[in-house]
What we know:
The chain is built from nine helices and nine strands.
Amino acid sequence: MSNQKWFITGASGGLGKEIAAKVLAEGHRVVAAVRRVEALQSLQQAWPGRLEVESVDVTDTDEVRAVAARHPDVDVVVNNAGGAVIGAMEALSEAQIQQQIALNLLAPIHVTRAFLGEMRAREHGTFIHVSSMGGRAAFPSGALYHAAKYGLEGFAESVNQEIAAFGIKTLIIEPGSIRTGFVANIQWAEELDAYKTGAVGQLREHIKAGGDDISSGDPVKMADAIYTLSQMAEPPLRTVLGADAYAVLETTYARNLAALQVQKDLATSVTLEGLAGFNPL
């Protein structure tokens, strides 16, 4: 196993910090892109010379390009930074809408673009996109979070088909709930009277009543799993992590497949005779 250089966004806490700790423990170097540099002081003391902390706002494309230019030899990029705003879509402020798309979708797009050219030239590299079970299944109160995570998954899957021939691997990680303080850090939209009952109100109460105690994913075990996947010669494109994520996605996939199959006759009935249509798969 050769020494690798990892670039990890959102590494100041939670899953990102655990991934950084795991990578460092395995003997590799880490560039941690964070907003709170002081949050990594203990890791820097534990791994002097191997951990470099960069103060980066991943929603600022100029800062992203600049940090990528300072580290052209990165082997693994982890798009981990993210966060959720919870509440009825109608109640979200314009600032919250922009923030959700900027952080959860545009940031990983620009980080990927910033590092891709060097990886392609070397014909070597790995992109790890930390999505969510919310990138394949949707719940009330998370419309913009889901919009961003669904978009991230489509982006990553498409780009993977463009760059795989250059020896660049792509991993999409779909965690469920993680015991990292994610719930405590949720931003809440204004609560409108019309949504205090029904699906939005019920989900809000479920989250608030359970707090972080409802989160079941072990961030250390998840970090270990992600590292193991990254070292595989041919890792799966998507990996689900967490019993809750597996249960949600199994139910969602089965329901969607059943709904699709019911529509087969209608779908084929509107086809021009003798034409196969667009199907590059």
